[in-house]
Design brief:
Layout: H1 12-16, E1 46-49, E2 54-57, E3 64-68, H2 79-97, E4 102-108, H3 113-122, H4 126-143, E5 151-154, H5 159-171, E6 176-178, E7 181-184, H6 200-209, E8 225-230, E9 245-247, H7 249-261, E10 265-271, H8 275-290, E11 295-301, E12 304-306, E13 309-310, H9 321-326, H10 331-339, E14 347-348, H11 351-368, H12 377-388, H13 393-409, H14 417-429
Parallel strand pairs: 3-4, 3-10, 4-5, 10-11, 12-14
Antiparallel strand pairs: 1-2, 6-7, 7-8, 8-9, 12-13
Helix pairs in contact: 5-7, 7-8, 10-11, 11-13, 12-13, 12-14
Length: 435
């Protein structure tokens, strides 16, 4: 964390010496799991694009650029988070297997209302909460063998990028003030609404539900989104040409993604609860900034529930990844439990689902321990086909199930088959069967 920037009392020298974008200090990620080399090459991956409503090739090449919205670190990683990050890890693995170099970026929203509210509730410094929960998130992602982002940046470290984008929007007439706060007018982007496809009434409802302020007096349009929040008592602030304050949520991702990936990058990813307003607003701000599209495709993971309700920190109906691993559940089994559901589906987490994943993991490991098995090249082809078809993990798991059942029932004569299966399950599905 950039503690020097989060002081409430900032000197005139600080005001006159903002952090330059080229001096960014990236956050530490987590160890990168190895990707085994597999024979042949994977297929072009098609994913469901929310904006167009259809399947599209995820990246045309020669490289794949991915931005996945990161956590707001005011609490531990729950299985809804885990399902989203495993889904986009599956995408990256398929891209790598298809021979595409991948540039992935992720942010951490390490200053925001929920984090500051948690600090007030507990009496703990907001920076301490953010640092602790981000460290736990990294440990959770490492346990699940999720590929780390190439660039990992906290908003507090990227403040100069955010301020620069807001200033440029203001220069283009795409920003205005309400009582010292700075807003983005959605009218500045003629294509506003193109990501979500929602009508105005539904947008207003979701805006009020998900951190917006559609009823605030003085706004040109109820859907206009906050770019810069003027300093409030007891809150951290940063000095800039915008005055002392802190940024709104959506512009943070606009700035960070644009800086590292450029315009029209391949995939903007996240949970389906981010479609509106977050991804819609980020896209519109980028479009108003320079007339260029934000992302080429918008891909969204479904919601994981518990007892019929979406799993969320605000409801408190959470199953924490760290709690499961701390009580002895295998990260590999947890990952298989997540992959058993198509990434776009909404589903409920159950103890029975985890128990079935543990049995599946045991069967696969038993099959891998045999000295030989049926030819695994056809299995590799099927797993590649399934993952390339909108990340059909359940179909890929069923194919490995069939190979494992055949092996345990009547081992084949191919002594290299178990090794290849171990590599393909590791490389494409992210599950290590050898430990």
């Amino acid at each position: 964390m950039a503690a020097v920037l989060s002081r409430l009392d900032v000197t005139q020298a600080d005001r006159e010496a903002p952090v330059a974008p080229d001096s960014l200090r990236l956050m530490h990620t987590w160890p990168r799991p190895p990707l085994p080399a597999l024979p042949g090459e994977g297929l072009p991956v098609r994913v469901h694009d929310t904006a167009s409503g259809g399947l599209r090739v995820a990246a045309e090449g020669p490289r794949a650029r991915l931005y996945v919205c990161g956590i707001t670190p005011y609490d531990a990683t729950h299985l809804g988070h885990a399902a989203t990050y495993v889904a986009f890890d599956l995408l990256q693995r398929a891209w790598h297997d298809a021979g595409l170099p991948v540039h992935s970026v992720q942010n951490v929203t390490d200053v925001d209302d929920p984090l500051l509210e948690r600090a007030r509730e507990t009496g703990e410094e907001w920076t301490a909460i953010a640092e602790r929960e981000t460290a736990l998130f990294r440990a959770d992602m490492a346990a699940l063998r999720v590929l780390p982002p190439d660039d990992y940046l906290g908003v507090t470290e990227g403040m100069a990028l955010v301020v620069d984008v807001i200033e440029r929007l203001r220069e283009r007439g795409a920003a205005y003030e309400v009582d010292g706060d700075v807003y983005f007018p959605v009218a500045a982007d003629p294509s506003f609404g193109g990501v979500s496809g929602l009508d105005t009434a539904e947008m207003r409802r979701l805006s009020a539900e998900r951190g917006g302020d559609p009823e605030r007096p003085g706004k040109k349009d109820p859907l206009d989104s906050l770019l810069w929040r003027q300093t409030r008592a007891g809150e951290p602030s940063w000095h800039s040409a915008l005055g002392a304050g802190r940024p709104g949520w959506h512009v943070e991702c606009t700035a960070i993604a644009r800086h590292f990936l450029g315009s029209a990058f391949d995939v903007q990813g996240g949970g389906s609860d981010l479609i509106f307003p977050h991804h819609e607003m980020s896209a519109s701000q980028a479009q108003a900034l320079d007339g260029m599209p934000f992302a080429s495709r918008y891909v969204h993971a479904g919601m994981v529930g518990l007892d019929g309700e979406k799993m969320s920190k605000s409801r408190g109906n959470l199953v924490l990844l760290s709690a499961l691993t701390n009580t002895g559940h295998s990260p590999g089994a947890i990952r298989l439990a997540l992959l058993a559901h198509h990434y776009r589906s909404d589903w409920d987490w159950t103890e029975g689902g985890l128990a079935e994943a543990e049995r599946r993991l045991a069967r696969w490991r038993a099959a891998l321990a045999t000295p030989s098995g049926p030819d695994a090249l056809p299995l590799l082809g099927v797993v590649r086909e399934r993952t390339a078809d909108d990340l059909d993990a359940p179909g890929a798991l069923a194919a490995v199930d069939a190979w494992a059942a055949d092996t345990l029932r009547s081992p084949g004569i191919d002594r290299k088959a178990p090794e290849l299966v171990g590599d393909l399950v590791d490389g494409l599905l992210g599950v290590d069967l050898r430990r």
